[in-house]
Design goal:
This protein is mostly helical and 461 residues long. Helices cover 67% and strands 2% of the residues. The strands form 2 sheets. A two-stranded antiparallel sheet has the order 1-3.
Length: 461
């Protein structure tokens, strides 16, 4: 089993190292480190505790880097693993190869973890270099920066790798379903960690990503407010002692637990793995007739609109048919759109339409963007750029159609401010999702970003 583990580790590690996407990530994170550690007097601070600026030292710089990596860079790590060089797996061979899946999962997951730790280490090196411009030379302690940062963020990145392995084991989680579940896990983990300070009995194990528990151990004051990426309203300073986390058994036990849990999750994913096999699911006759009727009705309604685009109508119709799938989701979209006649746009209809369109458009954004498929698409009679424009036109047309009931109600109620929300959903959201899919060749990055926007809009409503 150990030989199998090493084989799969080397294969996965080699795919990461040889791919240029890794260097894009490394350079981007090293540049980003410059903004994680702001210069004195700048209008923002990476980390504020109890509405006060932490006094800078090597340990605090490591804490800042670790908190940002654990809290904000984990979604980027997930995107990298889901949409990066290891996105395409030779499952046609792997699923029939007589090898232990336990060794395969642990080997590939460990390689993913190692590559994320390499990126984290280079962020730490960037922090040490930036310390030359932030601290007196006599106060620079490189080992303090690296050690504090790894205690905070290393288990978090290992957990991201484990989630990727687990999601790869189940059909529903291999695509959009997995992205949505990850978003829920990430949000839930952050909320639970933030609520840790509200309880008199602090349990460091409930902080999955480690940022809140690390600050709790480092502060002499009772932590009542923790902000990342904001500027305190006062000039008060607070002393933090992040090096305590290197010897505090409560924190080390909690971070060690989540680290071991991550590797255990990679191994346990083998127990629930389901091979990728196309299965023809029989449809009930009632639903077949219903969806056939919807297709006919949709064609009757859309044909005059599509024909009005002249020679581009066929292209828009083709892309619209690709966006409007699967059929059960189209049915939900229609019902949600019709609800706009009755319910206010800001009270759930807008957020519901936005969520459904996010999954439809993000899927469409990467449908033809794989390397081989993009080359195949280039052989069509219309250029790739024109096809992208037609795809955007189809997305906008669909958005306009589903907004009609809410638009009618908004005009009748005099709610003209809602038109701004509709415009952003109809015009701006497809533009971002289709562009993100074209640039990254994956649906995951744009989908995760827009899910964050959707969650903010849901709370705003």
């Amino acid at each position: 089993m150990f030989d199998g583990f090493l084989t799969f580790f080397r294969q996965q590690w080699g795919r990461h190292i040889r791919h240029p996407a890794l260097w894009v990530v490394i350079v981007g994170t090293m540049i980003g480190a410059r903004y994680i550690i702001p210069l004195p007097g700048e209008g923002y601070v990476t980390l504020s505790v109890n509405n006060a600026y932490p006094v800078a030292n090597s340990g605090v710089i490591g804490l800042q880097l670790g908190v940002v990596a654990a809290l904000l860079l984990t979604p980027l790590a997930y995107i990298f693993l889901r949409a990066g060089p290891t996105k395409i797996q030779p499952y046609q061979i792997g699923d029939v190869t007589p090898a232990r899946r336990f060794a395969r999962n642990l080997g590939q997951g460990s390689a993913d973890t190692a590559i994320l730790w390499l990126v984290l280490f280079l962020i730490g090196i960037s922090g040490i270099i930036l310390s030359l411009f932030r601290l007196p030379l006599s106060e620079i302690r490189p080992l303090h920066t690296i050690a504090v940062m790894f205690v905070v963020a290393a288990p978090s990145l290992a957990l991201i790798a484990a989630i990727r392995v687990l999601f790869d084991a189940r059909p529903f989680l291999r695509g959009a379903g997995g992205d949505f579940v990850f978003f829920l896990i990430w949000m839930f983990g952050n909320v639970i960690a933030a609520s840790m300070f509200m309880s008199p009995d602090v349990n460091l194990f409930q902080d999955v990503f480690g940022f809140a528990s690390s600050v709790f151990v480092a502060s002499d004051e009772q932590v009542t407010a923790l902000a990342v990426g904001a500027a305190p309203t006062t000039d008060r300073l607070i002393e933090l002692y992040p090096l305590r986390g290197l010897t505090d058994m409560r924190l080390l036990s909690a971070r060690g637990f989540w680290l071991l849990f991550s590797f255990a999750l990679m191994t346990a994913a083998a127990l629930v793995y389901k091979p990728r096999r196309p299965v023809a699911k029989p449809k009930r006759r009632l639903f077949q007739r219903l969806f056939a009727g919807l297709s006919v009705l949709g064609g009757v309604v859309a044909r005059p609109l599509v024909q009005s685009f002249g020679v581009f109508g066929a292209g828009i119709k083709s892309f619209a048919s690709q966006i409007l799938s699967p059929a059960w989701l189209v049915l939900i979209l229609i019902l949600m759109a019709l609800a706009g006649f009755v319910f206010p746009f800001r009270r759930g209809v807008g957020a519901g339409l936005m969520l459904i369109l996010i999954f439809m458009l993000s899927r469409q954004s990467a449908l033809w963007e794989a390397r081989s498929l993009r080359e195949l698409r280039g052989t069509f009679g219309v250029s790739n750029g024109s096809q992208w424009i037609l795809s955007y036109g189809a997305a906008v047309l669909i958005g306009i159609l589903v907004m009609v009931p809410s638009f009618v109600r908004a005009l009748s109620q005099g709610e003209l401010l809602i038109l701004r929300d509709m415009g952003l959903i109809v015009f701006a959201m497809p533009l971002f999702l289709l562009a993100a899919g074209y640039i990254t060749r994956s649906a995951t990055p744009g989908r995760l970003v827009m899910l964050g926007v959707w969650y903010g809009y849901l709370n705003l409503a």
